[in-house]
Amino acid sequence: MTKPAKTKAETRQEIESLVDRFIREKGEIKQVKMGESGLQDGKYNTSHVGFGEPRKERTPLDHVVAALEQRKANKRAPDPKTKHTVKRRKKVIYDDFGEPLRWVWEE
Questions:
Q1: pLDDT band at 92, cuts 50/70/90?
Q2: Counting beta carbons within 10 angstroms of the beta carbon of residue 63, is it exposed (0 to 12), middle (13 to 18) or buried (19 or more)?
Q3: Secondary structure E strands in 1-82
Q4: Cβ–Cβ < 8 Å for 91, 107
Q5: Which helix (H) or strand (E) holds 20?
Q6: Summary mean pLDDT of the chain
Q7: Phi/psi-derived region of residue 63, left when phi > 0, alpha when psi is between -120 and 50, beta in every other case
């Protein structure tokens, strides 16, 4: 049996109790301006942004895509010689009271 997931209310209550405990233990919460926490020396940290290099030209691969699409189309085409066989299934025969009597094969 698995443990039930926490509700949003339970999660909020847990976070609130952690903050209260932090404050009671003489912790201090500093107020900062909106957006200030993402800044380093008054500027956004751009060292992790991957747009520093100029855009590279892409290699056209239209002929490769066309070849792949052609192979897919060949696989999808059904073979006219192949005959589709009907799979047999087991079916349960029940009596008047809903009890299973026997299994029969059905096509």
A1: very high
A2: exposed
A3: 39-40, 43-44
A4: no
A5: helix 8-24
A6: 83
A7: alpha
Backbone angles phi, psi at 54, to 5 degrees: -70, 155
Tell me: the pLDDT tens digits for 10-61? 999 999 999 999 999 988 888 877 767 767 676 776 666 666 677 788 889 9
Query: Cα dihedral angle (21, 25, 26, 32), rounded to 10 degrees?
Result: -30
Retrieve residue 31's tokens: 């107020």
The model's pTM is 0.31
Number of continuous H segments (helices) and E segments (strands) in the chain: 2, 4
Angle at 69 between CA 65 and CA 71, to 5 degrees: 120
What distance in Å separates the CA atoms of residue 12 and residue 10, rounded to the nearest whole number?
Answer: 5
Q: Running DSSP on this structure, what letter comes out for residue 6?
A: P
| 44 contact partners, CB below 8 Å, separation of at least 6 | 38
β strands within the chain, DSSP E: 39-40, 43-44, 89-94, 100-106
